[in-house]
Model the fold of this input.
Amino acid sequence: MTKFKRILLKLSGESLAGEKGYGIDENHLTEYAQQIKEIHDMGVQIGIVIGGGNIFRGLSGTAKGFDRVKGDQMGMCATVINSLGLSSALGAIGVPTRVLTAIRMEPIGEFYNKWKAIRHLENKEVVILAAGTGNPYFTTDTGSSLRGLEIEADVMLKGTRVDGVYTADPEKDPTATKFDDISYDEMLERNLKVMDLSAIVMCRDNNLPIYVFNMDKPGNLKRVIEGENIGTYVHR
Ligand code: UDP
Done:
């Protein structure tokens, strides 16, 4: 038995960089692919949004003189690079995938639409939703909440390198404590920077639960799917 039938998994680009701190660490990518295979084998329908922070972020680009919109477009292209990398790593271990892009760029990926995505999911293909929302001034967190709602996912799983939502950043404050669950509103009031506020608001307003967990520990994705309480559940 799986706790969720259809999920939207958000992976950060930054964690793909692994020890290198930039670009793609192949071992890390393969490890993620293996975790995804484990839950694919259990019959879970999987949509994935992956960030691009390991390659380029529009906002940091503006600080270096890049035009914001072009910088964000570069960031969206970065998510496509990561999506292709993940698709390739999944293909190498026998998991069928489709890359759907928010911006038209065939043959790199198919142009996204909700019904196509759902059809592929029902056909047991992992659907990788690339290029965020396709618009500047957004992030892949917002892209995930949007796509999670569109594909009618049961939950948005946010795979990070921390164990869940803490009272403060546990990497900076050793006294920080973890929430097992928290409401959207409390997360917003406390200004907990686990994900973008606009993404949280979108999930709240449309009632898409979020589960934040540590994806950098092998086997954790499967544990979440089996209903083990290893992270933080964000809900109404
Ligand atoms: N981006 C964008 N619109 C979107 C999604 C992403 O403009 O809908 C750009 C934005 O510049 C962002 C970059 O792509 O900084 C990479 O995405 P993100 O920062 O969310 O990646 P992550 O932090 O998850 O690695």
Notes: The chain has one domain: 6-235. The CA atoms of residues 29 and 85 lie 8 Å apart.
